[in-house]
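note to self: dont lose this again. the chain is below, predicted strucutre after it. 202 aa total, dont forget to put it in the shared folder this time
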Amino acid sequence: MAETSGSTLQRLAAATGGGVTPATRLDVVAGAGAWWAGPRLGTWKGYGVGAPSYFADLADGMIARRTGTVTRVGEIMDHVGAKPKIFWAAWHIWRLRLADRPLIATVAVYNVANGVVTGYDLIRNAEPAVFPDRRAKWAMMTTAVGMGIQVAATNAERTHPRLARVLHACGAISTYGGVAVFGIPTTMGYWRAARNGPGRPR
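---
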């Protein structure tokens, strides 16, 4: 019987300690795209490369589950690896004034809070207790989409000012609403999970 692509991918993941999977390869490519696009988000070319690079984080977990290649390395990259990309984008969006600065700060603070709780979990617990769930994905999506929409609004201001105003408002609603509805409950859930984890043997 011929070996299926699924079993081949699973063998490769096992042979590399979970380091080489479709999801981790996607993350590497997306990371390179995000690095290149960050300083260029004020152009449509940079935006066109940056948008799929940043939103690849929404697909990697699904790809891992579909291919049966969910690994601990992949989970760490999914959970922690997105943070540098977000801060890289946020820095350039802030520097170039491509979105409202309070909105950018809100996204940054939310991600710092989650990063701190995740680090605490990794230090405190022998087996990590914090994993991104569907609510966390929604939080990331709504906040990142909101910031991205405002960048698109800024890029469109010269040629389509009325559309830009609508997009600007939509971006604010998505970001602030996402933090309130999904982000804060996610961070509180992470904190409870970390505090109630197995701890490390003394």
